[in-house]
Amino acid sequence: MSAQRRRGLFIVLEGIDGSGKTTQARALLRRLRRRGLKAAFFREPTRGRWGREIKRLAARAGSLTPEEELALFVKDRRENVARNLRPALEAGTIVVLDRYYFSTIAYQGAKGIDPERIRRMNEAFAVRPDLVIVIHVDAADGLARIRGRKTRDELFERQDYLVRVAGLFRRFAGPHIVHIDGRGDKAAIGRAIWAEVEPLL
């Protein structure tokens, strides 16, 4: 972690679909930039070759096996780490990332793949975050929030499945992992996130 401190700061926001993590990640980015800090936002799946393939296939239930999903997410993440995350951190940028390998552990783990195997596979190449913020909402509430989206990910946006995913997200623990209740006011959630980020600046 000390090597990362000499680079940029790496903050990841996680949670099930509809948890509000994308809204909060973008709000955090704006707050950092208002402070005059050099900050960048990325998300996974990316808009690269493998990320676009994931989004295309996710629109249709049953289009991929869990192992095929895992392989695509790892390919997309390898590209993201090499092209975006490492270069930005090495340039001293604060990186805010919407989803990372914790999502892969939770989502593909909920489909029966060993979560520890997924973790080992990703941590063999992934940059370790300085802070992981997991935002929690109930699966039903998350799905209600995203009901109006133009596109739906039929592979992932099912209540029974998201209940299992949420359970895996709640199991994450460690000195750099923080759990936040995402059911309240957006501004209050943003303040709770900032309270975790500000001491690291």
Would you mind describing this structure in some detail?
- Helix content is 51%, strand content 13%.
- The chain has one domain (2-200): P-loop containing nucleotide triphosphate hydrolases (Rossmann fold, 3-Layer(aba) Sandwich), CATH 3.40.50.300.
- It is an alpha/beta fold.
- The chain contains 9 helices and 5 strands.
- The protein is globular.
- α3 runs antiparallel to α4 (66-90) and α5 crosses α8.
* Major sheet details: 5 strands, parallel
The CATH C-level name is Alpha Beta
Counted beta strands: 5
| Quaternary structure classification | single chain
- Determine the number of helices (DSSP H or I, runs of at least 4 residues): 9
- Calculate Rg over CA atoms: 16 Å
The class by helix and strand makeup works out as alpha/beta
User: Roughly what percent helix?
Assistant: 40-55%
Q: Give the count of structural domains.
A: 1
**What percentage of the residues does DSSP assign to strands (E)?**
5-15%
- CATH fold annotation: Rossmann fold
Question: What labels describe this entry?
Answer:
Rossmann fold, five-stranded parallel β-sheet, 201 residues, 9 helices, alpha/beta
Care to give the gist of this entry?
The chain is α/β, with parallel strands linked by helices. It contains nine helices and five strands, in the order αβαβααβααβααβα. The protein has a single domain (2-200), classed as Rossmann fold, CATH 3.40.50.
